[in-house]
Amino acid sequence: MARNIILKENTINCLLETSVEKFGACPALSMALEPPLTYNDLFRSVSAMAAMLKKQDVSKGDKIAILGENSPNWGIACLASMRIGAIVVPILPDFPESDIHHIINDSEAKILFTTQKQMEKVLGIQDHKLQTVITLDDFSAETDVLSIEPISQFIEKARSFFRQIPDRMGLKSTAVNEDDVASIIYTSGTSGHSKAVMLTHKNFITNVLTTSNHVLEIHPEWTFLSILPLSHTYEFTLGFLFPLLNGARIVYVGKTPTPSVLEKICKVEKPQVIPAVPLIMEKIYKKKVLAAFEKKFVLKLISKVPGVKIKIYRKIRDKLVEFFGGQLEIMAIGGAAINREAETFLKKSGFPYLIGYGLTESAPLLAGGPQGDETIAVGSTGKPIPGVEIKIVDPDPRTGIGEIHARGANIMKGYYKNPQATRETVDAEGWLHTGDLGHFDKFNNLYISGRSKNMILMANGENIYPEAIEDKINSCMHVAESLVIEDNGRLEAWVYLDYDLIDEETKSRSQQQKLEYIDELLLRLKDTINPQLSSFAQLTRFVEHKEPFQKTATSKIKRYLYQH
């Protein structure tokens, strides 16, 4: 596919203005099951709020933090801030209080947009530069520490003030350029070392334009369902800017996207696109697909007849598409590696999906699709996106696996207040050292083997990629998630089990018998997995981990918390 959407300027402001001109009366943003704001409504609110922020002495380059769950008001606050050249600092709602305080203080934010759910994490903040806290959900509170204002009150004052301004078409006196920083995003990576990534307007816009023109084609009447945090680049770029550029409608779930919640909302909203992380599809695969084969003996038996399994897969696919509202055109999966067995089902059944790969530092997409390319293989992330160069550095002569380096207009400006880390990550020629390991196949599909920091070097000199072993373990019905670690020269697997399934299978047994069942299950897992591994990658034991592993916003396990 190849389209030709062009913007006069590579700025988020220009994107919004262009979309309003083309799609003004079309629906833009809404909470699920609620009436939407049109593009015209959105622009009026953004312009009024931008004017009010400027009146409150927010200048170009000032920082505005947003800590809250996804909502139309989140998007309005973000776009209004960027409109006057302020820098948005999005904060993941799942961050602990200490991290939130650090981000607000380190960024020197002047304004904070937040919600009632997050307010408790903010009230104890010390030594801050906040002038005002505005609640996105209209929550009001009295405090001696912070000045708090509900957003409806703020917008009402903003509109009154805005009506008095001669130039209402967007505060043209504020010049925002493509190389200006649009956002500073504090990551919470798997290594535990948080960095503040500075992304420019051009970084975001080039990524969005490339995606729209070369990777995935969408239409103005389509609906995007937003279930991932807007404070992460994956959802912000591909689940917010991307649909806005194309005149689509964005619907926010407003609560934890459990299967029952998703089914209810999708039945009404009927989304065509859902950006998701692999964990969502992997859970659905196990519950809807594997469970059907495991529980029904006849189904399991006839599926071995040539051609029958594909027919069964396609029937299950049809039910899954119906579960998501019946009009799903694409499930965009990224943020972490998807389980190979689950993806094999998606591919063979014809389920509409697309895999992507990227980093916060690349705004985020580096590789993915393109849509309709039949040479994209299971296990790969597809092709490098146009405009992005990717090379494999110091590849292993046996496997071709080396570190992935990337270069393009979407690569970050650098790390905020950390020039040394910037120099270590982006070299003098502009190559981003991703820290990921991978290789290409003959069709130029990129495969990710894991993080270079996660690679385990055994005493015999063999390189072990724990993510590849975990992928096999996670395919097992009784495993929810797993972590492979090295302990005194030996490999072991920590597994968090599917306790709902285990409870169902052991409901007539005593507590002691349930514990014995789990011990037997761990031994069976070892006997199942080890024959699939090389002799040097054998697991010495499987250890039950009785609670979910702590994860990043895109559901990657924070490995540093569990290393010896």
Description of the molecule:
This protein is an alpha/beta fold. The chain folds into 3 domains: 206 residues, ANL, N-terminal domain (Rossmann fold), CATH 3.40.50; 208 residues, Rossmann fold (3-Layer(aba) Sandwich), CATH 3.40.50; 106 residues, ANL, C-terminal domain (GMP Synthetase, Chain A, domain 3), CATH 3.30.300.30. Helix 12 packs across helix 13. It has 17 helices and 25 strands. It has a 5-stranded parallel beta sheet with strand order 4-3-5-6-7, with helices on both faces. It is 36% helix and 22% strand.
Output the keywords:
about 575 residues, alpha/beta, Rossmann fold, 3 domains, five-stranded parallel β-sheet, 25 strands
The low-confidence parts are none
Q: Which sequence of strands runs across the widest sheet?
A: 4-3-5-6-7
**How much of the sequence is in beta strands?**
15-25%
- 3D shape: globular
**Helix percent band:** 25-40%
Instruction: Return the average pLDDT rounded to an integer.
Output: 90
Quick one: CATH superfamily of the largest domain? ANL, N-terminal domain
Q: How many β-strands, per DSSP?
A: 25
CATH top level assignment of the largest domain: Alpha Beta
Q: How many structurally independent domains?
A: 3
| Structural class by sheet pairing and helices | alpha/beta
Radius of gyration: 24 Å
CATH architecture of the largest domain: 3-Layer(aba) Sandwich
The N- and C-terminal alpha carbons lie at a distance of 48 Å
CATH topology type of the largest domain: Rossmann fold
**How many H/I helical runs?**
17
Q: Major β-sheet, in short?
A: 5 strands, parallel
Oligomerization state: single chain
